[in-house]
Structure formats: C-alpha cells, structure tokens
Amino acid sequence: MRYAILSDIHANYDALEAVLKELEKENIDEYVCVGDIVGYGAEPDRCVDRIKKLVVACVAGNHDFATIEKTNIEFFNTYAKEATLWTRNKLSEEDKQYLKDLKLVEDVGDFTVVHGTLYAPALFDYIQTTFDAYLSLQVLKSNLCFVGHSHVPISFFLDDAVTYSVEPEIDLKPGVKAIINVGSVGQPRDDNPKAAYAIYDTEQSKVWVRRAEYDIEAAAKKIMDAGLPEILGERLKYGR
Ligand code: ZN
Fold first, then answer.
1. pTM of the predicted model, to two decimals?
2. Ligand 1: distance of its center to the CA of 10 in Å?
3. How many Å lie between the centroid of ligand 1 and the Cα of residue 204?
C-alpha cells in the first residue's frame, strides 16, 4: 500500500492542489489527513470539500476544533484568532459538521494518526524534543505514528534511546517505533516555503517527506483580498 499523508493545509488551496498534482504520479492507494484543514488561509471551504472527498481518515487539528468552538481560542495569537473568527463565517453548516465529527486519534492500516501528541491529544501540545516524543512513543500501540501541528518535518525513533532525524527519506526498522511529523502543506515553518507532504510505502517500509512548489503569490493575494491579516500571506513567502 502507498499512502499520502497531508497535514496543516490551513485553507491554502493553491498549495493543496499543487501537492495533489504531484501525488497523481505516485500510485497512491489512500490519502490521510493529519488535521488543521482550516485556519490562516483564504479558502477553508474549498479545502474542506476537497479533503472530505479524498481521504480515508482525517483527525482534528486545533484550528479545526477552534473553528467549530470545540476548543478555546483564548490562547491563540491575534492573527490566529482573527483568522478563526473569519473562517467561522466562511464555512457552510455541512463543512462545520464535518469538522465537528473529526476524531482526535485514528488508526489506519498499520499506523496511527494524531495532530499534536498521543499522550494528551485534546491538549494539542507539540512534539518538538526527544522527551516530548518519548511521552507519545510510550503510549503508541502501533509501530508508526504520523503527526503535524508544528509545521516542521522531523522524525523520532524509539530504540534503546529516543533519536531524531530531519532526513527526508526515512527507513522504518522492525522493532523501532517511529513518530513522523510530515510538515505543513499550507503554511511551512521550517524556512522552506514549498508545501510539505509525505508518502508512506508499506512494502518498502519507507516514508518520504516531499516538497511541492506552488503559486505562493496567488495564495498570499487571496489572503489580502479576503481582508485577513496581511502577515499570514507574507509568512508563506519565507516558510515561517
Ligand atoms: Zn497547524
């Protein structure tokens, strides 16, 4: 089986389309979404509609739940808050219902999917250190978990100790549990503005984190035209 794993699309339809176009050539059997379909970008409606028809499973991100008031936006920064309020008005009741029904954790084939962490998925904490990863690896029942949320691709492995790697080609080894952050389709934050996504090949036991070029200017202009904070378009150009 070949899976495409997409996370943190953040209402950036231009980035999503570019990624899906690259994936057309990859013999993908199933698509999986790691959450945050909406928030920040100007086309949440188009992104929800595209994702819900495409994926076999999607988990909830903090922005998805914030949009339908399932999590508090008190601790969101000003721009995230403003984008959330804007997104609430932009989505249909049907799209909101789709976000409402998303689960925090999903098991797909031989792997697990969660937006933030496995030890407390509803808190939407970040896995950024080997210790953070250790806490989730401890409760991971399968051997592989895909996460998002930080918008930075990185992989953690539990062998004798917890190690990490930022290599884009990841070999999964028997007996070594792995947590892989697939980066962000719609708002990368690792100083690389190209859209990030991953492919998981079960036969080869390999994961690749790929990058797709897309029309960043177009996405930024839509953010401006929508009256969303200008910085949300600007940051796309720098990948941070
Ligand atoms: Zn996100």
1. 0.97
2. 7
3. 29
CB distance 146 to 111 below 8 Å: yes
User: Which phi and psi angles does 111 have, rounded to 5°?
Assistant: -135, 175
Mean per-residue pLDDT for 70-90? 94
Which residue in the block uniquely carries the two structure tokens 């250190």?
129
Instruction: State which residues form the domain around 94.
Output: 2-237
- Number of folded domains that form the chain: 1
In the three-class reduction of DSSP (H, G, I as helix; E, B as strand; rest coil), residue 93 is classed as helix
Residues flanking ion ligand 1, Cβ below 5 Å: 8, 36
**Cβ neighbours, 10 Å, residue 32:** 24
Mean pLDDT of 112-139: 97
Q: Provide the CATH number for the domain around residue 160.
A: 3.60.21.10
The SS3 assignment for 36 reads: coil
Q: How far is the CA of 22 from the centre of ligand 1 (A)?
A: 22
| Distance in Å, CA 12 to ligand 1 centroid | 12
Report CA(64)–ligand 1 centroid distance (Å). Answer: 9
Cβ atoms of 187 and 151 within 8 Å: the answer is yes
Q: Give CA–CA dist 75/22, Å, rounded.
A: 36
- For 85-99, write each residue's pLDDT tens digit: 999 999 999 999 999
What is the average pLDDT score of the chain?
Answer: 97
CA–centroid distance, residue 161 to ligand 1 (Å): 28
**∠ CA 73-79-80 to the nearest 5 degrees?**
35
Query: How much distance in Å is there from the Cα of 175 to the middle of ligand 1?
Result: 30
Structure tokens at 211: 């990058």
